[in-house]
Write a structure and sequence with these properties.
single chain, 201 residues, mainly beta, 6-stranded parallel β-sheet
Length: 201
């Protein structure tokens, strides 16, 4: 068990380091590398990770509370049952990351790349996904009420059993995904019909 508090690191290479079961509080990491690092069960609180590289990192069961991961790379990272509470993830890339069982509570995931991620059965109520790339994601049985999906890429997204009521869907291409089995509110239903050329009065 280790603890870093109020530390600042710039362009430090933590690749392949064993950083399991540690606590990071109010630290700032700028352009640091965590490639292949072991961060299982690590805990962050109020930390900032700016343009950091977590490619291939093991982050299973890690917990992040009010931390920011902006423009970070998580390609191929293992985030199995990781938890993100009120985190800012703007611009980060999760291509080919394992996100099964991940928990996302509120927070800002705008402009992230979550292509083909399995986020099924997650409660993501009120999360911001503005212009996020959710191509081919599994969002079945997700609670997306009051989420902001403005201009998000939703092509081939699976939404069976998802609850979209109250979600902002401005600029979304309703023709690019199947809404069968999803719960929608009246405003979304009208927008869906208009996207297919219907005149709703």
């Amino acid at each position: 068990m280790y603890q870093y508090v109020d530390q600042q690191y710039s362009e430090v290479d933590f690749s392949h380091k064993d950083l399991r079961d540690g606590e990071l509080r109010n630290c700032v990491f700028t352009r640091c590398r965590f490639r292949g690092a072991r961060l299982e069960e690590a805990w962050t609180m109020g930390c900032q990770f700016i343009e950091c590289d977590f490619s291939g990192a093991l982050m299973n069961a890690s917990v992040h509370n009010r931390s920011a991961f902006t423009n970070c790379r998580f390609q191929g990272a293992n985030l199995f049952v990781a938890k993100f509470e009120e985190c800012k993830m703007v611009g980060s890339d999760f291509t080919e990351a394992s996100m099964d069982g991940v928990t996302i509570e509120k927070g800002d995931w705008s402009y992230t790349s979550l292509r083909q991620a399995n986020l099924s059965k997650q409660s993501m109520r009120g999360v911001r996904f503005v212009e996020a790339d959710l191509y081919d994601c599994n969002l079945e049985k997700c609670d997306l009420r009051d989420a902001d999906l403005s201009r998000a890429q939703l092509s081939r997204v699976r939404l069976h059993g998802a609850d979209l009521r109250g979600a902002v869907m401005d600029g979304v291409n309703f023709k690019s995904f199947d809404v069968k089995g999803a719960r929608m509110d009246a405003g979304q239903a009208v927008a869906f019909l208009r996207s297919y050329g219907a005149k709703v009065e």
